[in-house]
Amino acid sequence: MATENTLRTPQEIRELENERDLLRQKILSQQTQIDELTAELRETNQGVVALYAELDDRAGQLKDASDLKSRFLSYMSHEFRTPLGSIMSIARILLDRMDGPLNEEQEKQVRFIQNSATELTEMVNDLLDLAKVEAGKVTISPAWFEMVDLFSALRGMFKPIMDKSEISLIFVEPANIPRLFTDHVKLSHILRNFISNAVKFTQRGEIRVGVRQNDETTMMFTVADTGIGIAAENLESIFHDWVQIASSAQKRLRGSGLGLSLSKRLTELLGGEIRVESKLGVGSTFSVIIPIQLPGHEAMSEEAAAVPGEKARLL
Ligand SMILES: Nc1ncnc2c1ncn2[C@@H]1O[C@H](COP(=O)(O)OP(=O)(O)O)[C@@H](O)[C@H]1O
Ligand SMILES: [Mg+2]
To answer: What is the DSSP-derived secondary structure letter of residue 183?
Structure first.
């Protein structure tokens, strides 16, 4: 087979040498380009590092602001509680006629003071709870408990309000519901918020509180009302801090707009989620779905947890 390896003429050699020199020059200029690029990259890199530092700084500032907000909230809430307590006890003393009789008009006025102070106390409590959650100061203490006990505690809590109301509050007796291992105080708080909203926004009909097993590992609690309902476009925003939907009912009622936002955060702490379905003018159903056994906590066996003769105290 013929090869191309033949002898070159001096002319060819010169040409090859020229070509080699050209290539060398090209390589040199490319090397310079690479050096330039490297320098540029180094600079960009320094810029990125500086940006990161700035971001870190901003994150730090944000955290400080959030800590400050939490501290401010908890401080304010504590400062509010004491004078509110005095207002409430003096109103009670006056209404009990411990310092003498009241005429009809005076009684009306003192009741007004009492109602306003109660409302303000509820608001302050919501604020304090939210501040605690934001500051990460809420501890979850799970224990085994029976649904029946939780429902009867809630029933007792709402009895004084419902006795005066035209609507009925029905607790559907839990049937075949396993015991739960979760923080029942937090769960009760969430349901209490749902029920008090349902009571606030329902003028006629009923409020039904129920529980059923959702799937193998979760439970679903529902509070269904026949109240004013919520428009679809507002179903998300009601879970934000301070949000209240404008309505004629809302003008009569007060509240902080913090209840649902707090409930949402408490539900997340219990490893669950909230769902809401609603139709304007028909009613709303709020549900909370939580694990039967709070994940991440060592659940004692039911037998070991059951101390004979002692029942978990609810609420
Ligand atoms: N059951 C309900 N029916 C109709 N509207 C509701 C219901 N629950 C909540 N809402 C709406 O969501 C808003 C936020 O609720 P919430 O956070 O509990 O605040 P608050 O009760 O203090 O107003 C309420 O102001 C109301 O507009
Ligand atoms: Mg509320």
So the answer is: -
DSSP structure class, residue 308 = T
User: Helix, strand, or coil here: 139?
Assistant: coil
For the segment 191-248, what is each residue's pLDDT rounded down to a tens digit?
Answer: 999 999 999 999 999 999 999 999 999 999 999 999 999 999 999 999 998 899 988 7
| Prediction pTM value | 0.74
Cα 22 to chain centroid distance, Å, stands at 70
Q: Is 34 exposed, middle or buried (0-12, 13-18, 19+ CB in 10 A)?
A: exposed
Of the residues 127, 189, 195, 197, which should be mutated to test ligand 1's pocket, given the most ligand atoms within 8 Å of the CB? 197
CATH number among 3.20.20.70, 3.65.10.10, 1.10.10.10, 3.30.565.10, domain 143-305: 3.30.565.10
Q: Cβ distance 102 to 94 under 8 Å? A: yes
Q: Provide the H-helix boundaries in the chain.
A: 10-95, 104-134, 147-163, 184-200, 248-252, 259-269, 302-305
Pick 86 or 5 by higher pLDDT.
86
Question: By the 8 A CB rule, do 184 and 150 touch?
Answer: yes
Which run of H or of E encompasses 145?
strand 143-145
Please tell me the distance from the alpha carbon of residue 270 to that of residue 264, in angstroms, as a whole number: 10
Ligand nearest to C-alpha 238: 1
pLDDT given at position 231: 95
Question: What pLDDT, on a 0 to 100 scale, did the predictor assign at position 315?
Answer: 46
Contacts of 81 (CB under 8 A, 6+ apart): 121, 124
Which atom of ligand 1 is found nearest the CA of 260? 17
The alpha carbon dihedral of 234, 239, 241, 242 has a sign of positive
